[in-house]
Amino acid sequence: MDYIYLAEKRVSRLGFGMWPLSGLPKRPAWDEAIALIHWALDRGVSILDTADSYHLPDEPVGYGEVLVADALRQWGGRREDVLVATKGGRAVNPDGSRYCTGGPSQLTAAAEASRERLEVDIIDLYYFHRPDPEVPFAQSVEALAQLVDKGVIRTAGVSNVDRGQILVAKEILGESLVAVQNQYSFWFRSSESEIDLAADLGLAFFPWSPFGGPDRKSGVYEIGALAEVANYARASRHQTVLAWMLARYERMVPIPGTRRETALKDLLGAYDVKLDDLSLTALDGIVAQ
């Protein structure tokens, strides 16, 4: 298991994303989700990534946060060793579509509500989920800075952002900005520049949907170059993808999500996969459709 220091904690370089356990219609039952979170925690995973908008359209805000709080309350390990990251600034319409809520007062209220649902005195890492086209980005980030000053959140992150927005966030938040979370996979390579900037600034980079998202469940089995590298490395395709990401940048923290223990066990095996330079070069060249 590899670790980095983030938000004053030593945490694993693989996190566990809560979206499949909370935001998908075919999510597992509550107790099954709790058991899967415990399974991950017991094996060294120490980052749980959720959001207040991880819920179904017909239920209250914050299902994913309450799930995490319940899992940690029941867990027999050291709660203080787990970093919980959550997000605010998005909401769910009755039809399941999503919209931005990035106004300063909205973010402040959202963070305070998240803190209550997570049952913590201070949120370890709080992301602005997505820039709101109706609100100047700097105003939204200023709200995060005020949340840090008020002790509602310990550190801040920005998600679904470009280079310019990262620089604005860094200027406003300073050392309180610790992470960027963008989509990144073989199907979505446009965040390469943001990864490089995160590295220059010493920020952690959390790639979401590392396997292309729920619409591409079979996608990793359709890339010939990935299959060749995986076979050479004697690893699964999913392990190979994560190993490639871990090698991409020392503070890269993939946050895959799954509903199955067998899949989670496979993903954690990525730590043991060592890719040589030739393999990494081959993977770097993949741009999937």
Automatic annotation (TrEMBL):
SUPFAM superfamilies linked: NAD(P)-linked oxidoreductase
Protein name: Predicted oxidoreductase
Species for this entry: Gordonia westfalica
Record-level GO cellular component terms: cytoplasm
Cited InterPro entries: AKR, Aldo-Keto_reductase, NAD(P)_OxRdtase_dom_sf, NADP_OxRdtase_dom
Pfam family, one: Aldo_ket_red
Domain NADP-dependent oxidoreductase: 13-286
Alphabetical keyword list: Oxidoreductase
GO MF term list: oxidoreductase activity
Origin superkingdom: Bacteria
Transmembrane as UniProt keyword: no
